[in-house]
Write a structure and sequence with these properties.
Shape: elongated
Strand order of the largest sheet: 1-14-2-3-4-5
CATH topology of the largest domain: Purple Acid Phosphatase, chain A, domain 2
Number of strands: 14
CATH architecture of the largest domain: 4-Layer Sandwich
Distance between the termini: 68 Å
Number of domains: 2
Order of helices and strands: HHHHHEEHEHEHHEEEHEHEEEEEE
Oligomer: single chain
CATH superfamily of the largest domain: Metallo-dependent phosphatases
Strand content: 15-25%
Length: about 425
């Protein structure tokens, strides 16, 4: 229901803004017959796609789900690209209309709108290129979102790491969003590729499945990788939205251990650790998701979840916290949590050089990538999947985190 409301509001807003700009500042475009016809039929096509999507979800038809959801997504992305193009070109059209109005007032209507032909031709060509550029970028972003999640190698170094954990590998799966844009075959292929790296433990940080009838299937696919230390998961906001009772029943029928404000101590050893390394204590924990982050109350709730998840943590254990929200790092680090694994943001699906383009606007959100406070570290995944298919410079990923010992530099006198 939340998705339906979101899509309806977004479509109405985009359609209204585009239409308003076309009939006011961009009349030359609006006078073109194909533009008016597109504006007329666009709502009909959108409703048809939405109806097909809803019908396919009811009858559990993956192919039609993809067609319906993909059609809606393409319409919304192209509408957003059109809005960007109209907003970028509106100042130039506004200046042009202002000049025409001044000329009409000063020299009369007979010469208003008259400019050298070459100048007008150049201006129209330049402005026409903007919609083409934004539409091409939008189409590329949709296409990139359909690429398979890459397995990103992430090496994290720790002072005083136990020998048994040197080389310990954690496969971090977050925001799989099995459903409209990621199907079971995609997840199976990812599991097959990831198994080749022989992870020691798998951590799943929420938003596993958006189509509830497939939730247990998703867990079964992940558990089949059978890492030596096990598969553990925490809750995301979509688990709450989709129906927590059904989610809990699915976990009860699987071998994936769900940790909700709780943790478990394991005796583990990296697969490639030396013969004399021995086992080490690892405390894997997971905290609940506050479902939304709206002000101090949500942050206080998240802090309580983090605190509760660490109650049984042994002092000597290496501690890993699974939290869907990366803001938990601010509360986990002071408690001595060595590694926090998060997701949720998808890197805002726009990035460059391994960082979100919005990093400077939201520095306290830890949007994408590796962060560190002393010896405590965080990795926020861009996510295996998405609930809206658009990515630029922020590809889907499944980080493979390898722990390694980092010895302090020796000093000579």
């Amino acid at each position: 229901m939340r998705v339906v409301v979101f899509i309806s509001v977004l479509f109405t807003l985009l359609y209204g803004l585009n239409l308003a700009l076309l009939v006011t500042l961009h009349l030359p475009w609006w006078r073109r017959l194909w533009v008016r016809r597109a504006a007329k039929w666009l709502p009909v096509v959108a409703v048809s796609c939405a109806f097909a999507w809803a019908l396919a979800r009811h009858f559990d038809s993956p192919t039609i789900i993809s067609v319906g959801a993909g059609g809606i997504a393409c319409i919304l992305v192209l509408m957003m690209s059109q809005l960007v193009a109209l907003l970028l070109t509106s100042p130039f059209r506004g200046v042009e209309l202002l000049i025409d109005a001044v000329r009409r007032f000063s020299v009369g209507p007979s010469t208003a709108g008259v400019q050298p032909a070459d100048r007008r031709r150049f201006l129209r060509s330049a402005l026409s290129a903007v919609p083409l550029l934004t539409a091409s970028t939008a189409s590329y972003g949709v296409m990139r979102s359909s690429t398979a999640a890459r397995i990103t190698p992430v090496n994290l170094r720790y002072l005083g790491l136990a020998p048994g954990l040197d080389g310990f590998k954690i496969l971090h799966l977050s925001d799989i969003h099995l459903g409209s844009y990621i199907d079971r075959e995609d997840l199976e292929q990812l599991a097959q590729r990831a198994s080749q790296f022989n992870p020691d433990l798998i951590a799943v940080t929420g938003d596993i499945c958006d189509h509830m009838p497939w939730y247990l299937d998703a867990l079964r696919i992940v558990e089949q990788m059978r890492p030596p230390a096990g598969v553990f998961a925490s809750l995301g906001n979509h688990e709450h939205y989709g129906g927590l009772d059904q989610v809990l029943r699915s976990f009860e029928r699987s071998q994936v251990r769900l940790l909700v404000d709780d943790g478990q101590t394991l005796r583990v050893r990296a697969a490639d650790a030396g013969a004399t390394a021995g086992t080490a204590a690892l405390f894997i924990s997971g905290c609940d998701d506050p479902q939304s982050m709206r002000g101090p109350e949500s942050l206080a709730k998240l802090r309580r979840f983090v605190d509760k998840s660490q109650h049984n943590a042994p002092v000597e254990a290496f501690r890993v916290l699974m939290s869907h929200r990366s803001q938990a790092f601010d509360y986990a680090a002071p408690l001595g949590v060595d590694l926090t694994l998060s997701g949720h943001t998808h890197g805002f699906q726009l990035g460059s050089g391994g960082r979100s383009l919005f990093e400077n606007f939201y520095p306290d959100h830890y949007i994408w990538g590796h962060y560190q406070k002393g010896n405590q570290q965080l990795y926020t995944s861009a996510g295996v999947g998405h609930w809206f298919p658009f990515r630029l410079g922020c590809p889907p990923e499944a980080p493979l985190i390898t722990l390694s010992a980092h010895e302090p530099h020796s000093t000579t006198t």
